[in-house]
Every structure is written in C-alpha cells, then in structure tokens.
Please model this.
Amino acid sequence: MTDAAATQSTKSTTPAKTDGRSKPFSTFERMVAWRFLKPRKQERAVSIVTIISLLGVTLGVAALIIVMAVMNGFRAELLDRILGLNGHIIVQASDTPLEDYDEVAKRISGVEGVTLVLPLLEGQTLATGNVGAGTGALVRGLRAEDFGKLESVANNIKEGSLEAYQQGNGVAIGIRMAQNMGLIVGDSLTLVSPEGDVTPFGTTPRVKSYTVEAIFEMGMSEYDTSIVFMQLEEAQLYFNQEGIVQVIEVFVEDPDAVDEFKTDVVAAAERPVIISDWQQRNSAFFSALVIERNAMFLILSIVVIVASLNIISSLIMLVKEKGRGIAILRTMGASQNSILRIFIMAGTGVGLVGTAAGVVLGVLICLNIKSIQRLMNWISGTDVWDPTVRFLSEIPAQMDFAETASVIVLALALSFLAAIIPARRAAKLDPVEALRYE
Model:
C-alpha cells in the first residue's frame, strides 16, 4: 500500500473539528503511528533499524535488571553468611580477661531483643589431613550447646551429625577443607599451633590430632575452606587459655538496628567492656559492594542510552521515508502538534515494547539463574562461577521492585526524549516542499 493510499484510508477516522485539530493521542493518531511503524517491503532499511533499536532497548533493560539483581543477591547472601556466623555485637574485656564469661553471657542474654549469646575462643593454626599440604585454619571454640544454636552451621551439616560432635571431643570442618585434605567423617585432622608449650629450649609448637565428627557447608568458600569448630573446653586447653574466652558474640533480632542494643548490652555486662558491631568490622567490604553496585548501574545505563540513540536514527529515517505521507496528512488538516504526537508515540512505542520484552527476559533469567549456571558448567566443562574467587558457591539473584521500576522508568524516559528530536523535525516539515516534485 502506498503512503497516499495509507493516508487516504485514515481519512474517515479523522475527527471532524472546526479548528482543524484532532484530539491529543486520539485513535486517529495512534493508528497513524502504528501504520508508520508497520514494516513494508519498500522500507526494509527503516524496519531493520527499528528492529535493532527494539532489540537494543530489550537487551539493555534485561542486562540492567539481571546485573542489579545479581549485585543485590550477592550482597544479601554475603550479609546472611557473615551475620549467620559472626555476632552482630562483639563484647571484649577492657581490663581483666573474660573469666566470668558464663555469668556475663547469661546477663546479656536477658536483654530484650537479644537472640543468642556465644562465648568464643579463636586461634590461628596450621591444619593438615590425609592429602595435600597444610593450610591455615581458624579454630573457633564454642560451648557444645551453643554450636547447636548456630543455625547457619548446625542446619547445614552434610556428613556426620550434630549429636556426634556435641558428645565427643572431635571437630567440625567445612566441606571444602575436607575435600582439599581428603578427609571424611572419622578421619583425623592434625592442628599445629605456634603458641605451644614453653620448654627450657624455648616455645615448641603444639601438635594435636582431632577426629572429624561433622562436615558442614555454609555456601561461602572462605568459611567452608578455613574454619574449624571445636568444643570450648578443648580449645581452651589447646591454646593454653584455660577458663577464659576472648570475646562474647551477641546476636540480635534486627542487625540493622544494632546501635539500639549497645547501651543495654554494656549495662548487662556489669563489668568494663569494649564493644563493636558488624557494621564497623565490615564497613570497608560492604562500602565497596555499594560503590560497585552503583557503578554497574551507571555503566549499564549507558547501554540503554545507546539503544535510545538508535531510536533517534530509526525515527529520522522514518521521517525521511514518510515525508510524502506527512505532507498529505498536513493538507488533510492534521496540525503540527498532531504530527509531533504521532512520531512521539512511534518512538515511545518502540521503547515500550523493548522495555516490556527486556523486563520479561530479565525476570526469566533471574528466576532461573541457577539452572543457567549449571547449564553453562555442563557446556563449558568447568565451573564458570569459581567459589574460591567469588566467595559464594552459586550465582545469587535477588530482584528489588523499586529498582526494577526505576529501570523501567529510565528506559521509557530515554525513549520519550529520543523521540522528541525527530518528531519535531516531522512536525516542521513543509507540505509544499514535500509535494513539490510529486
């Protein structure tokens, strides 16, 4: 169908107005905008550019949604792992060692909002197993009953049992440490501490072997590779710290409101203490995540901007191809504002369809990202998400409604702005000049 025929076919739908203007965004204007966008054989170049523009918006929006969801999931998973193992408030003695830790822990546990109190003894050791070289390990000594309350570990035991660990004098280790050292439940793990026994010839390292009673998997590579849990009394003997602990870790109901609990915790301790919270201890790490997240949003927004520039080029080509039709519409009574709105709807329509497709694609990938990861692992034959480098064993994805809405608004706004320049050019087209040689 020629432009003249297409334009003539819309004549009956043009509202009869005494001032020669149609109603803003009327059925007539929407239909003409669709006719202009509808691909035709003689306008193949325009159609190709329009399709490229649509695909650009789709991929840009999908990439932005997926990356932001992964960044959110990464932060949430790390936060969950870190706060699941480490206390929200750390209590340390400021004068004498914490010999009265049982009484202090009991008093702090009575504070409203406190969910768990763990007296803790930590120490660095060299760990060796059946195979491989020795590796550094962090021994954490906990009371047997407290280990069962630490749900992030107790609920993720893959081999052995919680009861066997609590009733014996063995240790619980991470699954990656067990794999690296060729250990299974019942094998012996040898620990070497540099702070050993004092002899006339100096301090000799303390070497002792412990039975592996349980193997856990927290899903965070650093923890699964390097942490060894031990009964508190045994850890005190091993590190020559009989009867004392280094810190008391306090878990609260709302980690984000940890400052509200500090005063009550200090008062409940009833002794001089120094306290710190998880935000202070991990501030640099989580600040880096926030900066990286904002930087990724800015960088990927440029992809959407580039796609919007493609909309400008496609509409400019459309205006050039439809110059004769625009001139005929003008002679039939369409105003400049009507032509302006027609091309704004055409450009925004491309952005709207591309944005909708991008949102659907992004949501589908986010919901199936673990299956996609396993598929990529199978295709490549390797682990595309190395947990030793990226801390977590799987790609996390957590979509945020407000963030997704901001991506949609950004894409639509850019599409609207991109349509204004060619739309104004179409509105200012002189029908006399356009039809001079027709």
